[in-house]
Amino acid sequence: MSINDLLAKALHQRAQLIADAKINNTNCFRVFHGTVEGINGLNIDRYGNAWLIQTFHQTLSDDELNQIRAALSQIDPLVVIYNDRSNKNSRILNPLDDTLEAFANTEQQMQENGIHFTSKLRHEGQDPLLFLDMRAGREYVQANSQDKTVLNLFSYTCGIGTAAAVGGASRVMNVDFSSFALAAGRKNAQLNGVEAVCEFVQSDAFPAMRQLAGMPVGGRRNQKLPNYPKLPQTQFDLVFLDPPRFAKSPFGTVDLINDYQSLFKPAMLATKSGGTIVCCNNVAKVDRQTWFDALSRCVEKQGRKISHATWLACHSDFPSFDGNHPLKMVALQIA
Q1: Which stretches of 89-170 are assigned E, i.e. beta strand?
Q2: Model confidence over 273-309: pLDDT tens digits?
Q3: What are phi and psi of 308, to 5 degrees?
Q4: How far, in Å, CA of 274 to CA of 99, rounded?
């Protein structure tokens, strides 16, 4: 099938989702998920007043890009930004003309279920400032945060924390190592008038989690530990754990395939009895049931138990081959 045919099919399948999005004050969603819908590595998203086209494997030709622009203009004639990230490091390769470059580097706004988020389609980082497949996670947190204390780990731009605060949380602690991401998080809180309940802790997640859990802060072998913010032992009503696939620091290694437990244990110990921890794993090759069983064993080893588990499914703008999306999210109520 041609790129026109594939995109037309994807848009037809999302007709109801796009209509519902308008009713629900949402103007950020995916309209083409290429891995599943026919062109591996091509994603097309709406981010506020712009369409964002991204390629991760192969650069689009001018003709292909024009075909996509024409199809998108029939839905909504917005600005179209193309980020070619097909190099191995995923950094943007292609220049834009001066007008589009200025737009892409200018702060915009978007809405998801009426919550305002900052948007910038080109910036010092690589990824967009809001991960759209996490919408179900933000909805869950917003719906379950009234009068709760919330810990948002690996918070990035604090979308989860902002949703919690809008949902009525009494306290939200966002933890991330990136000052750039936390600055965007502060902006998100301000846009929604919830900055009074939001905290922004710039820290490696390992020392932050371990201190909150009442565990000693250690490090990787032969690694000198840098300074880190000191935090008192604290438990939260709701903890959100959304780590990257893999990362190393002097304090530990984030490895979602082989060692999720090193992250989950302190995060779970920072969860109050009767509270909830939402765990995320975005590695496709990790089997959902195997991962869940490992989480269950970790809870039991700490003398606690899972009283209830709720799986959170990605929305239909992120289809999968077999109904099992690579992003797995489960909310565990811990006794």
Answers
A1: 108-112, 115-119, 149-153
A2: 999 999 999 999 999 999 999 999 999 999 999 999 9
A3: -160, 145
A4: 53
